[in-house]
């Protein structure tokens, strides 16, 4: 169990069919592992580019042990995909490092709608589930490193990617 763990979810409103699937899987996984997320701890942002700022702000409140970022960027005919994907990934990494808070990268960067759909379905391949698991495990690992008491369930098992 992950009792006492409080996680925020920041989810992009862009590509809602995909991000909704990611969110459902993340919420399910967190609840299954004893860290249910309250409705007030889910934050909808306009798009993937805005996720890092919102995640960093959430982490800096001190209310959350971790943040799960969920979004989807699908390649189009322009360089927009590359700019948004790079900005979001570097932004999430920088936000996590600057706040020393686990901020999980659950932002799909897909070349096609089909790739995005496959990664957001209600099955084991869902990347929202993987982001939630990564967040929980990183919380547990950081607690162990810092000498805090980490619930064993946070440290057990390996991530399957």
Topology:
Elements: E1 7-12, H1 16-32, E2 42-45, H2 51-60, E3 66-74, H3 80-99, E4 103-110, H4 113-119, H5 127-146, H6 152-155
Helix pairs in contact: 1-5, 2-3
Mind explaining what this structure looks like?
With 161 residues, this protein is of the alpha/beta class. It has a single domain (7-155), classed as Lumazine/riboflavin synthase (Rossmann fold), CATH 3.40.50. The chain contains 6 helices and 4 strands, in the order E-H-E-H-E-H-E-H-H-H. Strands 2-1-3-4 form a 4-stranded parallel sheet, with helices on both faces. Strand 1, helix 1 and strand 2 form a beta-alpha-beta unit. The radius of gyration is 15 Å and the shape is globular.
What spatial order of strands do you see in the largest sheet? 2-1-3-4
**Helix/strand order:** EHEHEHEHHH
Q: How does the overall form come out from the CA principal axes?
A: globular
Low-confidence stretches: 157-161
In total, how many domains does the architecture comprise? Answer: 1
Count of DSSP strands: 4
Radius of gyration (Å): 15 Å
**What is the overall number of helices?**
6
CATH fold group: Rossmann fold
The first-level CATH class name: Alpha Beta
Looking at CATH, the homologous superfamily is Lumazine/riboflavin synthase
Describe the structure in brief:
This protein is of the alpha/beta class and 161 residues long.
Keywords:
161 residues; alpha/beta; four-stranded parallel beta sheet; globular; disordered C terminus
């Amino acid at each position: 169990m992950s009792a006492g763990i409080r996680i925020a979810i920041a989810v992009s409103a862009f590509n809602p069919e995909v991000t909704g699937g990611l969110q459902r899987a993340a919420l399910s996984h967190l609840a299954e592992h004893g860290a249910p997320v309250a409705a007030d701890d889910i934050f909808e942002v306009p798009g993937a580019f805005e996720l890092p700022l919102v995640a960093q702000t959430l982490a800096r409140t001190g209310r959350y042990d971790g943040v799960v970022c969920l979004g989807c960027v699908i390649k189009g005919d322009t360089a927009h995909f590359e700019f948004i994907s790079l900005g979001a990934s570097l932004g999430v990494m920088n936000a996590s490092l600057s706040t020393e808070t686990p901020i999980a990268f659950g932002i799909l960067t897909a070349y096609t709608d089909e790739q995005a759909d496959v990664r957001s379905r209600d099955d084991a391949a869902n990347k929202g589930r993987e982001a939630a698991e990564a967040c929980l495990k990183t919380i547990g690992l950081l607690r162990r490193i810092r000498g805090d008491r980490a619930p064993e369930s946070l440290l057990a098992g390996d991530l399957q990617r």
